[in-house]
Amino acid sequence: MAMKPVKVSQLNGYIKRILQSDPLLGNVSVVGEISNLKLHSTGHVYFTLKDESSKVNCFLGAEYVKDIRYELADGMEIVVNGYIYLYERGGTYSLNVREITVEGIGNLSAAFERLKEKLSKEGLFDEKYKKPIPFFPAKVAVITSETGAAVKDIIKIIKSRNNIVDVVIYPCLVQGPGAAGDISRAIREVNRLFPEVDTIILGRGGGSLEELWAFNEEIVARSIFDSKIPVISAVGHETDFTISDFVADKRAETPTAAAQMAVPDINALKEYCRQKGNQLQHTMERFIKYMELRVTNYNIEHLQMSLKNRLHIQLSKIEGVRKDIDICLRNKMTELERNTEKCKSDLEAFHPVNIMKRGYAAILDQDGKLTGSAEHFATGDKLTAVLQDGVLECEVFEIRREQYGKTESKNEL
């Protein structure tokens, strides 16, 4: 006797209940290679896990993404743990992932060497492309995690060495899914939004190969290479090397070393100038004594007085020159300090955030370009208004052209 026909939804529901009741499928571990990796705007991650003869769709919920310590990438060999889930409406099943581990460090090391060789052949590591690090920077951007110890160490060192340097903190993810894309975006946006920055410090604290993997991704390497602003890579500890280190303009052993490399020690420079001044004074004194000794050794009486007079004149001139140099140096130092304070005040006054605090906004067109004229927009255009504490996505409903506060009217025949 044939079974009574059932609806599709009933069939799928029945299969789903069978899958959910199977203890093996409720907690299963599977090894395979990642492909078709996609990071959704909701924070969920979708990918396919495959081997040489089969594949299965996988879903990693946003609540589990934060527990993944390393950057996922197509071609990575991993072990996932989760449960089988049937999507009743579509009649498809997936492996819903709760945990991911890398299947052997050897795979990551091999991927590292492959990318290193590829970028090296393209010339991304060549010294001829390395940009010099400015000796006296006015502004330094720090791209790292806003909650990590690295950012605190960098700020502390910079301010202790030169407290007039402006520091821009640009936070980003430094490990886990999406970290490589976030780092790449941060580098591009600092170049676009803060072109006045002199040096970028890209870094994070130490970690395992998996935790540092975002800095071994090609997208990060190419963003560093394309940066118009010099980049110092400070990833991990002294023994840690990443692709970012090879592409960057300079590599620092630690974030602390990067801060020391980016900003000169003002007190050390003052001490250096003081020592050189003392050396100059001692050299002049030795020269004077030498000349006095030479003159003293002459036994020609009728020339002795003349020579002493000449020596006195020269000594007076030297002393005058020394005093002039001392006064000039003091005046120059005073002028430099005054100019430095003025530059600092001017920089703070024209800082975009301070301008926005006075009620202004930066207007970006649909292409993300900054514009200050209504002529660039038409009714219905989308635009972005960047304020001091947020971003407004806007649409143009009406355009009123004004000039110097007066409405420009046109009579049409």
Automatic annotation (TrEMBL):
| Coiled-coil spans in chain | none
Tell me, what is one Gene Ontology molecular-function annotation carried by this entry? nucleic acid binding
* EC class: hydrolase
Top-rank lineage group of the source organism: Bacteria
Q: Which Pfam families match?
A: Exonuc_VII_L (PF02601), tRNA_anti_2 (PF13742)
User: Which Gene Ontology terms of cellular component type are present?
Assistant: cytoplasm; exodeoxyribonuclease VII complex
Instruction: Please list the residue ranges annotated as the Exonuclease VII large subunit C-terminal domain.
Output: 124-332
Intracellular or extracellular location(s): Cytoplasm
EC no. given is: 3.1.11.6
Q: Answer yes or no on keyword Hydrolase.
A: yes
Query: Can you supply a Gene Ontology BP term from the record?
Result: DNA catabolic process
| Span of domain OB-fold nucleic acid binding | 7-100
Q: Which UniProt keywords apply?
A: Cytoplasm, Exonuclease, Hydrolase, Nuclease
Q: Which reaction does this enzyme catalyse, per its entry? A: Exonucleolytic cleavage in either 5'- to 3'- or 3'- to 5'-direction to yield nucleoside 5'-phosphates
The Swiss-Prot or TrEMBL record describes its family as follows: Belongs to the XseA family.
Q: Which HAMAP family match?
A: Exonuc_7_L
Subunit-structure text = Heterooligomer composed of large and small subunits.
Function per UniProt: Bidirectionally degrades single-stranded DNA into large acid-insoluble oligonucleotides, which are then degraded further into small acid-soluble oligonucleotides.
Q: What is this protein called?
A: Exodeoxyribonuclease 7 large subunit
